[in-house]
Amino acid sequence: LAKTTQPISMDSYEGQEVNITCSHNNIATNDYITWYQQFPSQGPRFIIQGYKTKVTNEVASLFIPADRKSSTLSLPRVSLSDTAVYYCLVGRRAAGNKLTFGGGTRVLVKP
Amino acid sequence: DAGVIQSPRHEVTEMGQEVTLRCKPISGHNSLFWYRQTMMRGLELLIYFNNNVPIDDSGMPEDRFSAKMPNASFSTLKIQPSEPRDSAVYFCASRFQGANYGYTFGSGTRLTVV
Questions:
Q1: pLDDT at A1 over 80
Q2: Strands of the sheet with B65-71, listed across from one edge
Q3: Cα of B114 to nearest chain A Cα, Å
Q4: Is any Cβ of chain A less than 8 angstroms from the Cβ of B5?
């Protein structure tokens, strides 16, 4: 499994854009990049998944450069409710393949 | 869809007692995962099932832990006997083969062993 490295914590303010970069130098050809969000006292929640270039949904955007050795999760115009831990995971998308969570990035959005 | 349902939501038990955690995956999902989360160790995968069959239990801490999935709609994680160091939040997650989205987690069971 490819190892990921991401910042331990980040602070931001309401209305700002938050960008969290994850390094995964050993990503394999078949690996996808997936981000999860976890609020206190809740289970992780799937945010976005991508393989290359850019993926966007109603929650976030995921930017993946051509070499795929890193990825950036972008949260536009954050609010206080976006305060959470964000996990970057790398692995095959095949059914049943286990995902290993790292330490995540604790994002604190301030008023 | 009610999502992944876990019970109980909270459990407080005395050391040495048996504890059973329950999980109902999303209907149609054929992979089920048990995770444990603590401040010190983060989220750890304990065991996962595909089509009700245990595939990888290498994360199970020791023989005191056991998990079963008797059918596609129910799984249990049992700890016998429980110890204070087992105190954690235990999450169950399920996934559908071929889906392009990730796992769906339950709300977790917060276990406290005193």
A1: no
A2: B5-7, B19-24, B74-79, B65-71
A3: 20
A4: no
